[in-house]
Amino acid sequence: MKTAIITSDTSEKHLTGDGHPEQPKRVKSIIETLKKKKDFIWDKPSKVPEKILKLTHTEDYIKNLNNSFPSKGIHFLDGDTVVSPGSKEAVFDAAGSSIKAIDGIESKKFKNAFCVVRPPGHHAEKNKAMGFCCLSNAGIAANYLISKYDYKRIACIDFDVHWGNGNYNVLYDNKKSLYISLHQHPFYPGGGTEKDKGKYNNSLNIPLPAGTNSEQYFNAYDRVLDRLVDYKPEYIIFSAGFDAHKNDPLAQFELSSNDFYEITKRTLDATNKFTKGKVISVLEGGYDLNALAESAFNHVKALSEVS
Asked: Distance (Å, rounded) from C-alpha 252 to C-alpha 240?
């Protein structure tokens, strides 16, 4: 079986205004790079079941979000998070990409999947949009795996350079999940210290200083691998942000494009005996277009090499 790329044209219709770093070209740059390699399955998002939306976010928030999309121009949900007339389809397709990815893996249509979608999701909390994010795409995936397929140990690994406060918030009291994040600290959005362990000790946060290089990062990543081996996950969800790259304009880590191959490969090598290769990945940050495309390609290369 092959790796699937789940994406939609609607991602490019989510307009954020001139100069906004979370722009349509992000998805376009990744897709153009991935299309140079021929052995992927390409598919489109599914619809998120209403039940799963309501397990992940409050009913009031979902209602308010649905009513927030303007008929013209752009509208700010917070100081960073912008929506436009084309954003509604993009937001729900981004969340629905993980549904299609999971169903495709469960039906053995493909072996694993990378969801090349926007807006990202890991800052969206149960009751609010934040940090470019409207829905918790990874949280929706976790709740779908639990509700539809009865998984009991799901690990969400968030390697975006910013702490995924939304993923943490959505999965905080979920006994069937483990949320892991390595991130720059102190930094946006605040929080993400080692004291943030989740309600059931179901979170591992590893804050690292600005200037963290590859060697320092992978020394810290050994803690992630140890926790995963101890947890024995049945399923892996990557919140795949590529803004820890040394060329990224929004952060101060010093990773190379190839480091994202290593992050992915080391994670899969440590967990495949538990997951049987069941992995989905959903795009989060990454704002230098060349670095983003290279890093995402290396991430998918590691996914595609899993036997």
From this structure: 17
Helix (H) or strand (E) holding 304: helix 289-304
HEC string for 279-296: EEEEECCCCCHHHHHHHH
Helix axes 259-275, 289-304, angle to 10 degrees: 30
Please tell me the distance from the alpha carbon of residue 200 to that of residue 93, in angstroms, as a whole number: 31
Was domain 3-304 assigned CATH 3.40.800.20? yes
Q: Are 209 and 186 in contact (CB under 8 A)?
A: no
pLDDT digits (tens, 9 = 90+) for 15-67: 999 999 999 999 999 999 999 988 999 999 999 999 999 999 999 999 999 99
* DSSP string across 155-198: EEEE-SSS--HHHHHHHTT-TTEEEEEEEESS-TT----TT--T
Using CB atoms within 10 A of its CB, is residue 181 exposed (0-12), middle (13-18) or buried (19+)? buried
> Residue 38 is which amino acid?
K
| pLDDT (tens digit per residue) in 164-218 | 999 999 999 999 999 999 999 999 999 999 999 999 999 999 999 999 999 999 9
Amino acid letter for position 45: P
Q: Which amino acid appears at position 219 of this protein?
A: N
Domain segments of the chain as ranges: 3-304
Q: Tell me how far apart the alpha carbons of residues 234 and 115 are, in angstroms, rounded to a whole number.
A: 20
Q: Could you tell me the two tokens for 214?
A: 């590859």
